Amino acid sequence: MCIIFFKFDPRPVSKNAYRLILAANRDESYHRPSKLADFWENNSEILSGLDMEEGKAGGTWLGISTRGKLGALTNYLQPRQEPDARGRGELVSHFLTSDMDSLSYLKKVSTEGHLYNGFNLIAADLSTAKGDVVCYYGNRGEPEPIVLTPGTYGLSNALLETPWKKLCFGKQLFTEAVERSESLPKDILVTQLLEVLNNEEAQLPDPAIEDQGQEYIQPILSKYAAVCVRSATYGTRTNTIILVDADGHVTFTERSMLDKDTSCWETNTYEFTLQS
């Protein structure tokens, strides 16, 4: 499970405004092996964390390339998973390494969506010269992907903008931080967005989560209904902030849990300028 908030404006009016601000949590079992975000050893254009689970290795939940391709994934909450379904993390990895534009890629994915358990996929082409295009597809929703209009969005483990209480609460906190973004030093903005991602206030009751998750969600509902999920063996393991300014300069900040210890975290920041 994960949660993503993002705002994009391909043509910001102010020089101090960001074209894209994205804040995301990865929620996962603390024991699932993965690599911290870094540029790939076999492809130095791509920056992401990597899943190292047997049979799923090489997939990722969120990544960006110097060519301007960005992909982000959340699982769709469903009570029962198909054990033989394909690993969803490959959907992001394949986009980051493909030459297809975001909409064409999602149209291809939409024909193969039945091979996976439920997912939501954001695919974007960020181009300083041509303008940014951000697209969305969920295999439990409409059959065709959509091109998003500029604005602010929230995505959790239902379809895009489904008004779960934790999503609405987190989106409001995110929006408030974004509204201050032009007047804040970059490091302060990142700190404030990390605070949004680490809010553990449960937003209950929420019949929408209970209806969708059914018996699966009941044991963890009080923890799961917060932006930051925190339980004994499962929860928010990674916070990621991506900022893209008017000139195409990217700041990618990842805060990751170390050694399955909820009190031990490491923060790394990467910066580069889009080649597109």
UniProtKB/TrEMBL annotation:
It comes from Rattus norvegicus. The lineage of its organism: Eukaryota, Metazoa, Chordata, Craniata, Vertebrata. InterPro entries: TANGO2. This is Transport and golgi organization 2 homolog. GO terms for cellular component: cytoplasm; cytosol; Golgi apparatus; mitochondrion. GO terms for biological process: Golgi organization; protein secretion. Transmembrane segments: none annotated.
